[in-house]
Every structure is written in structure tokens, then in C-alpha cells.
């Protein structure tokens, strides 16, 4: 069986560091990407998202090569750690951008925006600007925008790193619920193994620009590989 | 921030019993700043009193009924408004192009050439502009002499002002693009925004925030522009207040009228200053020409064509006078040059400007530091009054135009003596006063950042006074202090107001010499002098940045 999302010998040079990623992900799974800072976790997501361009190798979705496809046309949507929203636009407008980059929306699309906000629990907050929202609420708005874009693959780049513990768990559960409901494939960079343990069935460990191990989350977290033991502090 | 001492007070009993005194607060920067503020305010008060005294000898009714003067005031405002609009209308698309095309070979060199006018003395720039765009200039020879319009009058003033302020505006605008987080550009790519969408949703809000500030800065600079108007304008149809004041004092020796005009300009500057209040105080030159984040719409064919067109246009407009300066200047060296006069003038200008530059940097630094120093524990009425005076002291020279300051110093000094030594001192004092606002604007953001980072720790460890300057402030602010010093010195080298008020045939700087040669249309000699002055400025600027700033 071929993988749903595959990075095949994906090479990228960042300053002095040569990265080479190989990764296979099944449809509908949730994969956590963990590893030391500067190992290339965010670069891996940027390569899949279309924000960085690989020197060699390819990204495949259902066997189709998307390496040369512009970011906007990939079957992928990314949620960043911060700066996901435009400060001068309301929550609804920020979500609406996911449907039309010039904000010319049909009535049906407007209803879509309302529904997406409802799904993240913010139906009353459509007219607020980011400054009037909490950190968690802002990320919910950004998730709502990911939903209206209807892309099968959701990439999360440490999206809840700045949130408190309770809010963090709440957001992880929201992502998990939305994944099940919409059949999304999720790839999430995180610093915290607990995040991986909570919602990810599989985990990829990245070190020095390579995927060192990709397996069921429990096996990765209990792995005896020295880099992983050092990272986890066991 | 632990302001007004409350957090400190709550720990006071513990501190007094356990903490030894680590350093003697001999001369704190705050107290130095207070002294500096007091000196500045005293000098400015003296100038005001002297101007009022002088003006009372004149007849204010003469001014009100003076239709010539009315025309001058209207022209002063109009040329400043037009210069500002033109500079910005060009700067916005050029900056957008430079920000979008953040990686092309030669971008660094290009930006360096493009920012050369920022340190160019006004008269050098004027020579370049005349040599490139004048009636006998390069463009005229290309198009055909006779067809090409004259550079003298409003047109020339605008061209020269844009030559100066287009690079300034780009330099101030470009950092705004760098404040856009990389995620925003990625978001734009992810959402498939076109250049139009990006302009509407990302760039326009950005511009609305920064452009008023930059417009105010350029407007004020053009409002009080002197050398350009004196050389390229003049005559009744194209004269500004600064030039009219100068003519009253220098050509008509009509001191009462000059005093009245100076007061009029002071009022106008205050009005303009209040209108642009809070807009002109901060300009972070130090931000420089970094690269904004990657944009997905940069590599389409139309984006490339459009951006290249803007960049080429801007570079040609600014580069042609620079090229003319170099080529004509080199050719000028073959002419018969008065070398001893040139050397003497260079030496005098250099001595004056280095002393004045150091003075202005000192004032700028202590004012910037003192204006933000958290008050001591017992923040009494006296301290609060002193703090507001400090804020005022930094802004006052901005409200007083260079010419008003110049006349003030001129009157104060010539009341007592007209010896050459005192003339030189007068020029130095004037140049210090003129450069303070620039030094303050340059140093304030850096001093602010530094305070935010280190102030609490310094107070915790009681690193105060000179120790604090030596161990903390100097190492972290060295590059900015050097830039302020270099800029103030290059302003002094280009000064025309001080030297033309106080100077005499025995007391000439290169600027003065260049002005005389330009007015006498001795273009060969002017070309050589302009090039020498430019090289001197660049050499001194580079030397200061290297020696003081520790740049390699």
C-alpha cells in the first residue's frame, strides 16, 4: 500500500546544514513531529506546505508529485505558532480569507464562515478583532480558517506552544475531534512529548535534519536510541 | 517597569541593611542630562529674548502689509508640500519593489549608492543635480541644449529635494516591510493572494501607520531647507523664509526685520511642529537595509518587470548626479585649483565639524538617556519639572529652524565681539544645536531598547554613574553612538548657515568655497571642490564608524 503523504529523499540546505527527509504518513492519521530545537522540524513542515523549496527529492500526496505546486494550490493548510491573523481584520474576515483572498464572499460562503466559527466554539466572536481575543481564541479562529479551506492535510507548527496547560489540552482535543469529524490527516510539530502522547497515534523523531525514527508514538517515546533518550531526558 | 520607586520602596528595609554600596553615583547620566537640558534651555531662552529685543525695533505693521513676504510664506509651504508628496509618491513603489525583490545580485551595492545622498552635504548634492539636470548638464546634452528646461526655480528646488528625500523615505520605509512577520507572507502564499490582495490587506495598513510620520519628517526638512533654495531658487518668485531672513541680515544688514522674520518663522515652525507632533520624534535609521521575508508573488513576470522598472528609474535619478559628481569632479582636478585655500578650508571645516559632532552626540546621548531614566525613589515635584524640561530641551531645536538658531547665536555673539575665535565658537555652537535633534532621534530608540533590557539589572546591582556607562551603555550603544557622531559631523561639514553668517574671506570652509564657486558659475572649480568635500565627508564618516563604532 502506498502512503497518503510521502516525503521522498527531500533535500534542503539551510546555511551550513544539509537536511534530508524521508517520511510516510497514512490517510487520516495524526503524526507528531518531535526533536531538538534547530533539528529541522519546522523546515520539514515548510517544505510540505510549499513555503520552502527543496533542492532535490519530492513531496507526494496520493502518489501525485506536488513539489512544484504553489502553496495555495496544495492539498495542505498550515497553522503557525503565531501571527496567523491579520490584526486589522475581524475574526470573520480572517476566516473568510480562507475562501477568497480578496474577501469577496457569496452568501453560502458567509454561512460557511459562521459554521466554521461555530465548530471552534466562537460563534459569538465573529466581529471581534484579534486584539480583543485571547491567545487560545486567536488560534481557534485560525483553525476555523483552516477548516473552511477544506484541505485534507493539516500542518500544525507548534501552534499551542504559547498557551497555558489547560487551554493547550483543550486545543489538542479540539484538533483531534475535528480530525475525526472531517477525516483530516494531521502533522503536528511540538516540543512536548505529552502532546504527542495525547492525540498522535504516530510520532516522527527529527534530529540533525533527518527523520531518525517514525513509528507508533508509544514505541518512539520508549525508544532506546541515544538521541531520543537524550532529548527526552531519560 | 519599576517606575516611581514603589517596588523598590517595598524592599527598602532589607536593602539598606544587607546591601553594601557597590559604586559611587558620582555623575549619574540623569544628572548630566539635567545639566545639559538646563544649558540648552538657557541658550534658547537667551536667543528668544535677544530676538524679541531686536524685533521690537522693527515695525510689525510692515510685515503684515508686506505682499512680498506673503508670497514667500506661501512659496515656503507649497514647495515643502510638493517636495514631500513627490518624494513619497516615488518612494512607496520603489520601496515596495526593493522589499519584494529581496534577493538579486548587486542589491547591497545598489542600496549603498542609493543611500549616499543621506550623508551628502546639500551643496555637493546641488552641484550633482545641476551637473546632471542643469541647462548645461548631462541630460540637456543628451536631449539637446535649449530644449531642456532651466534648473533654477521651483523645478530645481523640487528635483534637489527629491534627490535628498527619496532615499531618506526609502530608508525609513523599508524597515516597515521588515516588520511584517514571515508567517504573514507564508499565509499570503497559502491563501493564494495576488499582489493586489497583498497590497490591500498587508501593505496598505502598513503604509497608513508609517507614512504620516515620514511625511512629517520630510515636510519639516524641506520647510527649513536653506542651501538648496538659496542656490537654486532665490529671486522674488522662489524664495523661502529661511533665505529671506538670511538676505535681510547678510545683504540688507536690516537686523530688526531679520528679528521679526525669525519670530514669524518660529511661530510657523511651532504650528507645523504641533501639527506633526509626535510624528517626527523617532526615526530608526539604524534599522538599515535588511531583507524582508520571502514572498510568493515576487517571481511572476509582471512583478519582476514592474519592480525592475521602479528600481532602475530610482537608481538612475539618484545615480546620475552621483556619476556627474565623480566624472566632472575628476575632470575638475585638471583645472587650475587654489590648493592652499582648499586645504585651509578643509582643515577649518574638519576641526569645526568634529568638535560640533562630538558635542551634539554628547548632548543627544545624555538627553536621550535622561529623558527615560526612571525617577529616583523620592519623585518630588522638582524631579518631575526637570523631566518635562528634558523632554522639552530635546524638541526645542527642532521647533527653531537652523536659520533662527543661527541668527540668535549671531546676535548674541556679535553684541560683544567679532573676533575670528568667537566666530568659530559661534559656528560650533550653532552646529551642535542644529544636530541635536538628529542625534536624539537616532539614539533614542537604541537607548530605549537598552534601558528596557538592562535597567532593572543595573539598579539591582547598583551599577551607576560612569561604571554604568563604561560597562553597560557604551558596549551596547557603541554602534549607534558612532552613527550619531558620524552623522552630526557630516552635517557640520556641509553646514552653510553658520559659515555664511559668521564667516569672512579669511574664514572659509569647503561648503562656503563651493557656494561661492557655484554662484559665480565657475563649474570646473566647483566640480573639484564638490568631489573633495564629498570624499572628506565619506572619509570622516567611515573613519568615525570604524574608530568609534568599532566596525571592521
Automatic annotation (TrEMBL), chain A:
TM regions (residue ranges): none
Pfam family, one: ABC_tran
Domain ABC transporter residues, every copy: 3-233
GO molecular function terms listed in the Swiss-Prot or TrEMBL record: ATP binding
Record flagged with keyword Nucleus: no
Domain of life: Bacteria
Keywords for the protein's UniProt record, in alphabetical order: ATP-binding, Cell inner membrane, Cell membrane, Membrane, Nucleotide-binding, Translocase, Transport
NCBIfam families referenced in this protein's UniProt entry, alphabetically: thiQ (TIGR01277)
Organism: Dongia soli
Protein's name in the database: Thiamine ABC transporter ATP-binding protein
Amino acid at each position: 500500500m502506498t502512503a497518503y503523504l510521502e516525503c521522498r529523499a527531500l533535500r534542503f540546505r539551510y546555511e551550513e546544514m544539509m537536511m534530508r527527509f524521508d517520511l510516510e504518513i497514512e490517510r487520516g492519521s495524526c503524526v507528531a513531529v518531535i526533536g531538538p530545537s534547530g533539528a529541522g522540524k519546522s523546515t520539514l513542515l515548510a517544505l510540505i506546505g510549499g513555503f520552502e523549496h527543496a533542492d532535490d527529492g519530492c513531496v507526494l500526496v496520493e502518489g501525485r508529485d506536488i513539489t512544484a505546486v504553489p502553496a495555495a494550490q496544495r492539498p495542505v493548510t498550515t497553522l503557525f505558532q503565531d501571527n496567523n491573523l491579520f490584526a486589522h481584520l475581524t475574526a470573520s474576515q480572517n476566516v473568510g480569507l480562507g475562501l477568497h483572498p480578496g474577501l469577496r464572499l457569496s452568501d453560502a460562503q458567509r454561512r460557511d464562515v459562521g459554521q466554521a466559527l461555530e465548530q471552534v466554539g466562537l460563534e459569538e466572536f465573529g466581529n471581534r478583532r484579534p486584539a480583543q481575543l485571547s491567545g487560545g481564541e486567536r488560534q481557534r479562529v485560525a483553525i476555523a480558517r483552516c477548516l473552511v479551506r477544506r484541505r485534507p492535510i493539516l500542518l500544525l507548527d507548534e501552534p499551542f506552544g504559547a498557551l497555558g496547560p489547560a487551554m493547550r489540552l483543550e486545543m489538542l482535543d479540539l484538533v483531534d475531534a475535528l480530525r475525526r469529524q472531517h477525516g483530516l490527516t494531521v502533522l503536528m510539530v511540538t516540543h512536548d512529548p505529552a502532546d504527542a502522547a495525547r492525540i498522535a497515534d504516530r510520532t516522527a523523531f527529527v534530529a540533525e535534519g533527518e527523520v531518525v525514527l517514525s513509528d507508533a508514538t508509544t514505541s518512539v517515546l520508549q525508544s532506546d536510541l541515544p538521541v531520543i533518550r537524550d532529548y527526552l531526558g531519560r | 517597569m519599576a517606575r516611581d520607586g514603589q517596588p523598590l520602596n517595598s524592599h527598602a528595609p532589607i536593602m539598606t541593611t544587607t546591601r553594601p554600596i557597590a559604586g559611587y553615583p558620582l555623575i549619574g547620566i540623569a544628572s548630566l542630562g539635567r545639566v545639559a537640558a538646563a544649558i540648552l534651555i538657557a541658550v534658547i531662552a537667551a536667543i528668544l529674548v535677544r530676538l524679541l529685543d531686536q524685533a521690537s525695533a522693527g515695525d510689525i505693521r510692515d510685515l503684515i502689509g508686506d505682499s512680498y513676504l506673503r508670497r514667500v510664506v506661501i512659496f515656503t509651504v507649497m514647495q515643502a508640500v510638493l517636495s514631500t508628496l513627490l518624494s513619497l509618491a516615488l518612494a512607496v513603489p520603489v520601496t515596495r519593489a526593493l522589499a519584494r525583490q529581496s534577493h538579486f545580485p548587486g542589491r547591497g551595492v545598489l542600496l549603498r549608492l542609493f543611500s549616499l545622498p543621506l550623508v551628502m552635504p546639500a551643496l555637493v548634492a546641488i552641484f550633482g543635480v545641476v551637473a546632471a539636470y542643469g541647462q548645461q548638464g548631462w541630460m540637456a546634452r543628451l536631449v539637446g541644449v535649449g530644449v531642456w528646461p532651466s534648473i533654477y526655480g521651483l523645478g530645481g528646488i523640487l528635483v534637489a529635494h527629491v534627490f535628498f528625500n527619496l532615499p531618506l523615505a526609502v530608508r525609513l520605509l523599508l524597515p516597515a516591510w521588515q516588520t511584517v512577520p514571515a508567517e504573514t507572507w507564508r499565509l499570503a502564499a497559502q491563501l493564494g493572494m495576488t499582489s493586489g490582495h497583498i497590497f490591500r490587506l498587508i501593505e496598505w495598513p502598513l503604509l497608513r501607520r508609517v507614512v504620516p510620520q515620514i511625511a512629517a519628517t520630510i515636510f519639516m526638512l524641506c520647510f527649513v531647507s536653506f542651501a538648496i533654495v538659496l542656490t537654486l531658487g532665490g529671486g522674488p518668485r522662489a524664495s523661502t523664509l529661511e533665505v529671506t531672513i538670511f538676505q535681510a541680515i547678510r545683504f540688507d544688514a536690516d537686523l530688526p526685520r531679520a528679528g521679526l522674520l525669525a519670530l514669524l518663522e518660529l511661530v510657523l515652525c511651532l504650528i507645523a511642529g504641533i501639527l506633526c507632533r509626535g510624528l517626527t520624534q523617532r526615526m530608526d535609521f539604524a534599522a538599515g537595509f535588511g531583507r524582508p521575508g520571502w514572498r510568493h508573488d515576487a517571481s511572476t513576470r509582471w512583478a519582476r518587470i514592474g519592480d525592475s522598472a521602479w528600481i532602475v528609474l530610482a537608481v538612475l535619478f539618484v545615480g546620475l548626479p552621483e556619476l556627474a559628481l565623480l566624472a566632472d569632479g575628476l575632470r575638475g582636478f585638471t583645472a587650475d585649483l587654489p590648493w592652499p585655500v582648499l586645504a585651509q578650508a578643509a582643515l577649518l571645516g574638519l576641526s569645526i565639524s568634529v568638535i560640533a559632532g562630538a558635542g551634539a552626540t554628547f548632548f543627544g546621548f545624555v538627553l536621550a538617556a535622561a529623558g527615560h531614566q526612571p525617577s529616583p525613589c523620592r519623585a518630588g515635584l522638582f524631579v518631575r519639572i526637570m523631566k518635562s524640561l528634558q523632554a522639552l530641551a530635546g524638541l526645542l531645536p527642532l521647533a527653531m529652524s537652523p536659520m533662527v538658531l543661527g541668527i540668535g547665536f549671531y546676535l548674541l555673539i556679535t553684541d560683544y565681539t567679532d573676533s575670528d575665535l568667537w566666530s568659530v565658537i559661534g559656528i560650533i555652537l550653532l552646529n551642535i544645536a542644529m544636530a541635536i535633534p538628529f542625534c536624539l532621534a537616532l539614539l533614542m530608540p537604541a537607548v530605549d531598547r537598552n534601558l528596557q533590557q538592562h535597567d532593572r539589572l543595573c539598579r539591582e546591582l547598583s551599577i551607576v554613574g560612569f561604571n554604568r556607562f563604561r560597562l553597560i551603555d557604551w558596549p551596547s550603544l557603541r554602534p549607534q553612538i558612532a552613527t550619531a557622531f558620524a552623522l552630526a559631523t557630516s552635517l557640520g561639514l556641509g553646514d552653510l548657515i553658520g559659515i555664511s553668517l559668521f564667516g569672512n574671506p579669511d574664514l572659509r570652509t569647503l561648503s562656503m568655497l563651493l557656494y561661492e564657486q557655484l554662484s559665480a558659475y565657475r563649474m570646473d572649480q566647483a566640480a573639484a571642490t564638490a568631489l573633495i568635500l564629498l570624499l572628506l565627508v565619506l572619509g570622516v564618516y567611515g573613519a568615525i564608524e570604524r574608530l568609534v563604532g568599532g566596525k571592521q
